[in-house]
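hi! just following up on the protien thing from before. the input was this:
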Amino acid sequence: VPIRIGGQLGGVLSVESSEPGAMNQSDFDVLLAAANLAGMALTRSHLFAARQRQLEELTVLHGVALAATEATDEDTLIERATDIIGQTLYSDNFGILLLDKAAGVLRVHPSYRLQEDLRHFTIALGEGITGQVAADGQPRRVADATLRSDYVEVDARTRSELCVPLKVGERLLGVINAE
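and the predicted 3d structure came back as:
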């Protein structure tokens, strides 16, 4: 009997017997009712998880907005925002790379959350996913970065990457990168 989750097939409830004719219509009706209940419970569980995620995201936005009002300088704001977002949403690698326009590179902000020391790491505009986002101002979401020939590996554990430009109006300040 199919288990439907929000109108989609989510699984199958199966009962088997080694006895021929062991199950009757009443057994089928009970199994169908059980599959329907399981589908409703799973649908509610998915909705609850989505609401929890939305609450986390709104909490992060509130925290960053609060940090912005309390910050006395750019570095303090970036450090606080990186900490709030990194702890809640991205446990692997997360941070901000700032544009050094004169050198034509992105420089990793000291608050960048990564296992390795990246204090002196730079990436040229147009280089890799992050550099391309800085060069053209278009965000990128990459499901498997290791399949891309233009990917610049910093952490061998990274598979997916989300990178968005950090702008004020049309002026690029850097990029926000999550791996």
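The chain has a mean pLDDT of 88.
The two ends are 40 Å apart (CA to CA).
cheers
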